[in-house]
């Protein structure tokens, strides 16, 4: 990385200097908006021609000082409107000439009726459609208060989360970004739900995004306050499942004309239990024929996050930002596993109880520096930055195993083991994005992104022999992995027809990624290196049938590079009969994707439907192999080719003033050609999952949310996972003058959420189910202070920047 950083830094510095010194002045309409006492931020300023009020000539939003500026306005007569929830809409008639206009201060009046209806209105913005997918407003979700990002994702349309926290889009694992960047924070349980501003789902990425996004991208944006003056919020929560849990968060912010300082802290502590039951039959092994396992976990978890940000805007068009995030996570798991083995004649073979005390500690830090440059032409922009994140993970486990005879009498003394797994990871990004118009109808986006990853895993297993622990060299190893990805892209966006309402829109893009990676183990048994350059084209064509209805056809080529968990050759032997490990010799998947989408909006209804087709070579799947000693080893393999086609729909409706809902369903068929592996691999399967989000406003200041999830049985290479389903409920009531709220959350109301799978191969069959204490009750209290936007902060503690 050191080799590239001076060049990258110099490039960014030159662009910043050159663009910072470049300014354009053009005639404009300027002014300020206030409530008669203080400036008002986030007011929509809309300019329309007097002779055609259906078309918007220019648009702006007021800043923290209430200022706005409408640039590049053609001479003529106009109607100017000022709109913001909580205030009465104001309008002015103006005549604009080339010398420009300063309107002075416009005063808006409070609208009590609108304030009383703000809950219902805000629910319309729970999901906002974009050209590439949609954005989910996290503050509108009140059923996951006190949870983590994993819990929040369970409530996002089209996103499937299994009972073990596995996240998928359209049947595959998506790329997950934090604030739009690759991060060493890959465990979504390390992010508290209270710290999330919004979640963006990009189901059809263009060439400007990382190619390593087969099923799409999920971008988690953390909260960042942008309100003027000193303000903040406090949240306290507590409750219980099988054990107690609590959470809290504090947000403080100070913003002046040029500076913005933010500080946030949140935490989450919980106790959990889990029960796992497994059964396996090894058809052609006479002794270890029937295996029955029962496992019990007693777990405690702790999570703490500290976030700090500084923004400096020396002028209206230049902003420098610095962010720092610190994360501490601890997890202790007291596990007891009982294994009974019988022969093919159902006679006793062995019986043991394995006890493990696992202590996990993780520390993560993330630093980010960004520069944003605006221009008089709002179609032009420059963005550059450098980020770096670090993750340090330590896991120590003490294991004791006692063997019993058929009368359940202990045989000899316990077998004692110790294991540790120490991981260090650093991911750094350097990026530059430049958007420039080349004509009235065309814009070119271009940029560079460098991703640099360093990973080290030290796994050691030791057995007690004669009162001393002796390292087992066959079960211990050190794994080092380094990777550099240098990418450059170009994307053309254009349209055909009227600029304000084009009939056709299209984009053409190409992305080039140069990948260099290498991995090695301490004993040099699993060394590998890869060096390749690949091109990833993308294209889309959109037909606007009406202003609220369009069709869109898109194509893209993508890659699915095996992640670190898949590459790390270390074998986890916590369950000696069901170990699992990585495969350093995996090849990346190459995927071609075609998508056809239809979107239509009515006054109280909207629908978004996307049909997709995906063809993947070198598909990566987990594959279980029965060993001669009766052990089933689970490792990822390239299983051949997979063809997937399906339909994804999102339907939003608002049948009543007090109720709105969102229904999403994803269904797809998978056809698998795995002729390179055993013949018992599943050849084809149909899967679907659905989600319904109901929002009610039963009375003034009250909100009720009920979310239902259903994931059908999901096909695996050798069987299927069992279906999962659950219902979550959240209630929120505003208190006093509106700057406080009380919330009640019940997760998995009917205690139905569990995971498991059923495999049936030529050599063995096995069933496994896992049930955690997913049903829990949480009570929360939130308070916002010193803000001119109490209603806004209450609905969404810190607005989108």
Q: Which consecutive residue ranges, at least 5 long each, have pLDDT under 50? A: 1-25, 112-124, 787-801
Largest sheet: 22 strands, antiparallel, barrel
CA radius of gyration is: 28 Å
Structural class: mainly beta
Percent in helix: under 10%
Count of distinct strands: 45
Report how far apart the termini are: 31 Å
Q: Let me know the average pLDDT.
A: 83
> With helices defined by DSSP (H or I, 4 residues minimum), what is the helix count?
6
Oligomer: single chain
> What is the general shape?
globular
As a percent range, the share of strand residues is: over 45%
Quick take:
The protein has 801 residues and is mostly beta strands. The protein has a 22-stranded antiparallel beta barrel.
Describe this structure in words.
- This protein has 801 residues and is mostly beta strands.
- Helix content is 5%, strand content 64%.
- It is built from six helices and 45 strands.
- The radius of gyration is 28 Å and the shape is globular.
- The two termini are 31 Å apart.
- Mean pLDDT is 83; it is low at 1-25, 112-124 and 787-801.
